[in-house]
Amino acid sequence: MKQVGEFLKSVTYKVALTFAACATLNAYAVPPNVTLPNGLDLGSTSFLDGFGGNPGDFAIQSYLTTSHADAYKTNNGSNSPLFNDPRVNVTSLVEQFLYNFPTTTTVLGGHPGVDLIVPLVNLDSSFSPPPPYPGVMLTNGHTGLGDINAGVSLQWDPVMMNGHPVFVSRAEVYGSMPTGKYDQSTDLNPGNHFWGVGIMGSFTFLLGPDFEVSLRPHYQYSFKNGSPASSAPLDPGINDTQAGQVIYTNFAASYKVTDKLRAGINGYFLRQITDNRVNGSAIADSREQVLGIGPGLYYDLRRGDKFWLNTYSEMLVRNRFRNAAIVNLRWIHIF
């Protein structure tokens, strides 16, 4: 029984655009967009996150997320002069299918499982034209499927103390496949058009009968994109781009208000640890960063139905669009 969300690689779709300065790539007529992949699990999972299902359980988890970005932040955190009045609104509906194998056999002490994620994404962006110049106006891919993700997981039994669980954990290795809608002549696309692999851990610490703290750290590696996207013609010498490696974590703490309701604080922090690349050459000052935080609720309707409502606002943003508001509604149904 998957009582809380498995790793959600494909929700939120907060648009991250690393728009390198032309001087950095002065050999090219137009610099390509190099971004961290869409679909990173930034705040899609939160309370009681280390708990998972029993062998043989099957569940479907649905995520409905909307975000509103109103500024693009540069490497020093200031608003970029490239854009006039940027607005990027993203709505996503993601279906996640989770299955725990019906076996008593364990791997490294954990119960094995698999999951598959299929996202549908709507992009709605607007930019004011110049003046002032340059007044860059990015195009978007509107509505389409995002990249499908698949993973294998291990769920460990809770650590017990005096008859009560005090710690529970899960781990997953996953892959992102370039199956989403992608237009090489469009700046912002639902799909990434490159492969990715990653690993995550999910941990819940039960601090007494009513209070819990959860963490979900991730690492992700992105492979090369051999068809970079841009609404403006790129220099023919540009063969490929590659997003940098990234580490990030979700974090949450909640208090049991009633037997069914929890309230708390949820957040995420992302830090890119290597530079983006064009034709194998690093782009200086291109690493992304973001901190999101806000209140959240968890409601345990019954054994087979759980709900999460999480909200966020972003700060400490570098080299990406800043989301002023994000709302994520999550429901899991366990068969």
Essential attributes:
335 residues; 17 strands; 0% helix; signal; Phenol degradation protein meta; FApF
% residues in beta strands: over 45%
Q: Strands of the biggest beta sheet: in what spatial order?
A: 1-2-3-5-7-8-9-11-12-15-16-17
Query: For the report, how would you describe the main beta sheet?
Result: 12 strands, antiparallel, barrel
SSE ordering = EEEEEEEEEEEEEEEEE
Secondary structure tally, helices: 0
Shape: globular
pLDDT averaged over residues: 90
Low-confidence stretches: 1-28
Structural class: mainly beta
Per DSSP E runs of 2 or more residues, the count of β-strands stands at 17
Question: What would your notes on this structure say?
Answer:
- The strands form two sheets. The protein has a twelve-stranded antiparallel barrel. The chain has a three-stranded antiparallel sheet with strand order 10-13-14, with no helix packed on it.
- By secondary structure, it is an all-beta fold.
- The chain is built from no helices and 17 strands.
- Helices cover 0% and strands 51% of the residues.
- It is globular.
- The chain has strands at residues 58-73, 84-100, 111-128, 143-145, 149-155, 159-161, 164-176, 196-206, 211-222, 241-242, 246-256, 261-272, 277-278, 281-282, 289-302, 305-318, 320-334.
- Residues 1-28 have low confidence and may be disordered.
- This is Phenol degradation protein meta.
- Keywords: Signal.
- It comes from Pandoraea cepalis.
